[in-house]
Amino acid sequence: IKLFKHVQGDINEISTRHLDYYFKGILKQSKRKPTPDRAHVYFDLAEHVESAQIQTGTLLNSGVDEEGLDCTYATFQPLELNQAKVDQLRIIHVANNPSIGIGHSLKDVSNIYSSIVNLRDDGFILNEIGNPSITHPFGRDQSDISINHRDMQQAEIGFAISSPVLAMREGERSINFTLKFSLKSLTSLISFMEEIALAEKLSADNAFDKILNNVFEIRVTTSEGWYEISTYKIIRHNAWTDGEIQIKMALDVSDPAIINFDSEVHGTGYTANWPLFEFVISSKYAMFSYSYLKDLNIETCRIDTEVSQVKDMIIFNDQGQLDIHMPFFPFGGSPQLGSYFLLGYDELFDRDITDCSIDIQWHNLPRTKGGFEAYYKEYDERITNDSFKVGLTGLSEFKFHPSESSSIQQFSLFRSNENDKSLIPTTKFNQVDLEKLGLTPSYGPIDIDEYSSKTRTGFLKFELSAPDMGFGFDLFPKLFSDAIVENSTLVTGLIKPKETPKKDLPNQALAPQIRSISLSYKASSTFTFAADRVADNEERVKNQFYHIHPFGKRVIFNDGLPTLSTLLPQYDHEGYLLIGLT
Question: Global pTM?
Answer without folding.
Answer: 0.84
